[in-house]
Amino acid sequence: MAEDNKNGKNGNGARVGLLERVKAGVKEDVQSLKTDMPAKAKEQIEHLKDPTKTQVYTSIFRHKHDDTPRNRALGVLSNVFLHLHPAKINRDAVRYSYTWGMGGITFYLFIVLTFTGVLLMFYYHPSKVQAFRDVLYLEHDVPFGKLLRNMHRWAAHLMVIAVWLHMFRVFLTGSYKKPREFNWNVGVILLVLTLLLSFTGYLLPDDQLGFWAVTVGTNMARATPLLGHEGPFGHQLGMTPYNDIRFGLLGGSIVDANALLRSYIWHCIGIPIVASIFMIVHFWRVRKDGGISGPAPVMLASEVKEPKK
Amino acid sequence: MDWRQLWEIASAPDNIPIVGLIPLLIFYIYLAWKQAKANDELIAELETSPAMAKTHHRKSWPFRPGWQKEVHVWPFLLRMEFLAAIIVSAILMVWSITLSAPLEEPSNPNLTMNPAKAPWYFLGLQEMLVYFDPWIAGVVMPTLIIVGLMVIPYIDTNPLGSGYYTWKQRKFSIGTFLFGFLFLWVAMIIIGTFIRGPGWQWFWPGQTWDHNRLIYEVNRDLPDIFGITSNLAKAIFGAVVVGGYYLAGGFIAHALFRRYNPKDYQRLSLLQYSIMMFFLLTMVALPAKMLLRLLWHIKYVWITPWFNV
Ligand code: HEM
Predict the structure, then answer these.
(1) For residue B61, is it within any domain?
(2) For residue A294, which atom of ligand 1 is closest to its CA?
(3) HEC profile of B155-187
(4) Does a structural domain hold residue B152?
(5) In total, how many domains does chain B have?
(6) Contact of B194 with B9, CB cutoff 8 Å
(7) Which of A111, A170, A293 gets mutated to test ligand 1 (max ligand atoms within 8 A of its CB)?
(8) How do beta strands B70-72 and A88-90 pair?
């Protein structure tokens, strides 16, 4: 800048000097485009050959993936979805014949149900006027709507079966014994929640099948001891069809619009959230209790240490 | 033999899960039994030779020499999980494409479905309605099942058989569980699905459902048989019979348990022992009451102004 001002006094000469310098500058710029850009392009192509070195890549994946024991461990530990697992497990705990994989299959079915369920929610209105028509619409007009509904229905049935089989194998392997007593109890609650999820979903198509199944089911609530109007001591405690526990469940004295809405909210929001929380605790405790219980070395009756009383 | 009737029931879309549950149960019981047998044989061998027991790896499916004790979760467990997810998805897809979820007429409170059946997984409870009043079958029994499952880890004091399949080390607990699960739960579901027809009457498989069939069953109450007429006497009589069942049954169970399970008997605290006895006797009370009905047409044992048992 200071130089510019000095030249400025000489008028014309200065202008020539400026022009020369601009020309030279532009020439340099052009030259740089000619030489630097191809070099950069070459460099870029080199980089593209190994995308794992790019900043975008390294910002997503926090470690390398060449096949070393360290990376195998990191692949599990540094992944939010996989860190449920330890890095290494007992060799024969992966044997299918021990766990039958039923807990994992139950969880996978829960994910499938969440996914298909959310898609169904886009088409379904929980009201007496719309519900049945929405299901018809899904069956006949929505692209893949029928497949969607079928998948949701059958995955729900499969999940009930898978939970039972899971509980069955946990029992048969004695996996509820110390220190897993608490997790067994979390499991029992998950079993109940699974059945309730299935049951609340049954009413939603608002057809005869669901209506009568839920009518039969909730009629039993009339007979709840103390809290139902037909149950033992219900009458004495002032229970009527309009204030007992069945009324609370259905939002009315008959299975109608309110029952449909309540069913819907329990089915799509209430129970899934509670079940998710219990599942998180369940998986956490599987880890904290020392992982899968076996296949453990067999123990002999002669080795049991009787606790002193 | 009405094959069409049989086919109609077996192929009803919502009954397919039960048709599938039976072979699944058979397969997994076989798988468990196979491993239990191998383990029991190993245990018997080790019990007889203490020298061998000291050095033995104690698994029926041992490591090969040179194998590492632990394996990486990635890929050894994850590939199993991935494979399981793919297989389950494939099964679900095929099932959903070939078989459609049921949709009946729109719900109509004025048109009763006959038979009106609960979803299949609750049919065991609905079957109990034949033998018990709704407050027992619909409220007390589910509660007892849930609580009963929850106390299992706290009343099973047998330290053997934790983390491996066995039969010989846990005959009592496994036997009891199998009885509850297979006979009182799964079998009742099968009866509810395949046998119960209109009016919840008994139709043998292949017998045509007759919607007009009426059966005049003259059911009696136990007090009637003894010629007891006054309400007070009936109530007292019933309490004595039910109390007597628990006392006498408890005494027999005590005599057997003490003899055949001396170690567990010694380990159990008074509280654990009473809880176990209560659940055991209540469980046995179900088939007992069913027999009373089926053999002698007895409806109630205990009649009070507030509730009947
Ligand atoms: C929504 C339902 C459930 C899900 C998603 C679930 C999931 C799992 C998973 C993934 C495991 C790891 C081992 C395996 O796959 O077997 C597991 C273990 C376990 N589950 Fe569940 N479970 C559920 C219900 C239950 C029920 C109903 C019970 C028992 C009443 C139960 C008791 C246990 C116990 C005690 C373990 C530890 C087993 C061991 O260490 O061998 N769970 N569960």
Answers:
(1) no
(2) 41
(3) HCCCCCCCCCCCCHHHHHHHHHHHHHHHHHHHH
(4) no
(5) 1
(6) yes
(7) A170
(8) antiparallel
Using CB atoms, pick whichever of A209, A232, A255 lies closest to residue B306: A232
Structural domain includes residue B240? no
Q: Provide the angle, in degrees to the nearest 10, between the axes of the packed helices B141-155 and B270-296.
A: 140
Helix (H, G, I), strand (E, B) or coil at A89: strand
> DSSP 3-state assignment of B196?
strand
Spell out which residues of chain A touch residue B138, defining contact as CB-CB under 8 Å: 219-221, 223-224
Across the interface, whether the CB atoms of B122 and A191 are under 8 A apart is answered no
Contacts of B75 in chain A (CB under 8 A): 72
Residue pLDDT, tens place only, B11-55? 888 888 888 899 999 999 999 999 999 999 999 999 998 888 888
Share of chain B above pLDDT 90, in %: 49
Residues of chain A with pLDDT under 50: 1-3, 6-8
**Looking at residue A8, what is its pLDDT?**
47
Please state, rounded to an integer, the average pLDDT across all residues of chain B: 89
| Two structure tokens written together for A99 | 């766990």
Q: What's the predicted TM-score (pTM) here?
A: 0.90
Q: Which one of A212, A260, A278, A302 would you mutate to disrupt binding with B, by most B Cβ within 10 Å of its Cβ?
A: A212
Distance from CA of A288 to the nearest CA of B (A): 16
- The two tokens of residue B154 are 């706290």
In chain A, the domains with their CATH numbers are: 96-203+255-292 (1.20.810.10)
Angle between helices A145-172 and A131-140 (to 10 degrees): 100
A279 lines ligand 1 (CB under 6 A): yes
- Please tell me which residue of chain B has the smallest CA distance to A245: B139
Q: Where are the alpha helices (DSSP H) in chain B?
A: 3-10, 16-48, 50-55, 73-98, 123-128, 134, 141-155, 171-178, 187-190, 222-225, 231-260, 262-267, 270-296
Residue B127 lies in a domain: no
Question: Cβ(B16)–Cβ(B99) under 8 Å?
Answer: yes
Task: Write out the residue range of the structural domain in which residue B12 sits.
Answer: 1-56+73-101+159-209
* ipTM of this complex: 0.93
Question: Which residues are CB-neighbours of A226 under 8 A, at least 6 positions away?
Answer: A232, A233, A234, A237, A239
> Which residue in B70, B102, B164 is closest to A90 by CB distance?
B70
Ligand 1 contacts CB of residue A176 (under 6 A): yes
Calculate how close chain B gets to A142, using CA atoms only, in Å: 15
pLDDT tens digits for range B154-172: 999 999 999 999 999 999 9
Sorted by sequence, the CB contacts under 8 Å of residue A195 that are 6+ apart come out as A160, B121, B122
Distance A155 CA to ligand 1 centre (A): 18
What is the pLDDT, as a whole number, of residue B63?
A: 64
pLDDT in tens, B220-250: 888 888 888 888 888 899 899 999 999 999 9
